[in-house]
Amino acid sequence: MVSCCNLIYRKEKNKKLICLMQANSIFWTRALNIPLPHFYVFPESLGGQEKDSACKDHGSGVSATATVGETCVEVDGHKIKEANNVGEKRKDEDTSNAIVSKTIWVEGLVPGIDFCNHGLRSRATWEVDGDGSVTGIPVSMHLILAESNTLEAGKEILISYGNKGNEELLYLYGFVIDNNPDDYLMVHYPMEAFQNVPFADRKARLLEIQKAEFRCLLPRGLLCHGFFPANSLQTGDQKKISDDNLGFSPVNYSWSGQRKVPSYLKNLVFPQEFLTTLRTITMQEDELCRVASLLEELAGSREAQHLSDREVQAAVWEVCGDYGALQLLVDLLSAKIIELEEGSGNEDCDNELLEKFFAMVLQDLESESNPTKGEFLNKSKWSSIVYRKGQKQLARLFLKEAEHALEMCTTE
Fold first, then answer.
1. How open is the CA angle 281-287-291, to the nearest 5 degrees?
2. Among the four 34, 209, 277, 348, which has the fewest Cβ within 10 Å?
3. Quick check: 218 pLDDT over 50?
4. What's this model's pTM, rounded to 2 decimal places?
5. Contact present, 341 and 350 (Cβ < 8 Å)
């Protein structure tokens, strides 16, 4: 009897768990990230601020009378004028105003809008009507046509979920976009590997000062500015990208003048924050000593002033250059490709699976069969394969960029 009760209890518990999972899935596949005023999300915070301000003006044992530019405070029978209290009150008012005007992003379901599908070329956008001048309801949401012409009857209204890569689309919404222009690749240097790097403690201190990062996101759009661009850029755009990648002014890029700004810099698509990390990790003992000597020389010429992160970055670059960092980057991207292909093969294998999927869909359409559970699962597999194929594609393209940069660095 006890075992039967336990079995029933477990079944009911599993049912509740499945319902919670389904509810969670429905919410996160339809939720919108909505900008709302702070007072709308936390209405009690505004009242609390006013209450705290009132308490300050009526403390026990102290009477306050506000005048223009000063405050008279009576303490132990003596009146003392304090002008700084006005500043404190103004500070409280500024804080209160900042809270009122602050925007908080909240995930939520909006009936009607949450049923709109995602499209790269959306037909409509949504916005929050703060004062209710459009909808008649303050802090409400409404759709706006992206184009001035009216929408044709029977046409689906698409909105944009944002510039999201396939990983985010797959895990949040359950679909992907083939050849997604907003897709990205994540590359990182594992922290456990850094623990075994020679002189890890000294390098960790340098990394902290440089505000270096152990991982970086590489959006597909960066490839347009690389050595093998999909489209050409204007000269002005090329110059802007060069300065952004450089990270600090090229005028003072090298202190000694022995190392010049590399010619390939304008086409280098990898963030300097990540290359800074790789430069520091690959430093040898003699290079660490030379960097320390450069920094001591610079610090000695100043009085009570700390070295900036840009100055430390410049010192590390002048001593190390890009060769070690680019070589390590090539190794990381090669390892990324091996990881992606493990158990699933290369892109050709993914293409074969996708061809089989399309053949199966055509066969189902010809037989006029209704969609089945198996077909739904196949669609999920198709999304996973497209996502995996896109990651392999990006890894190979960025590896090609890194290898070419390494080759140019070697010749220079």
1. 95
2. 348
3. yes
4. 0.69
5. no
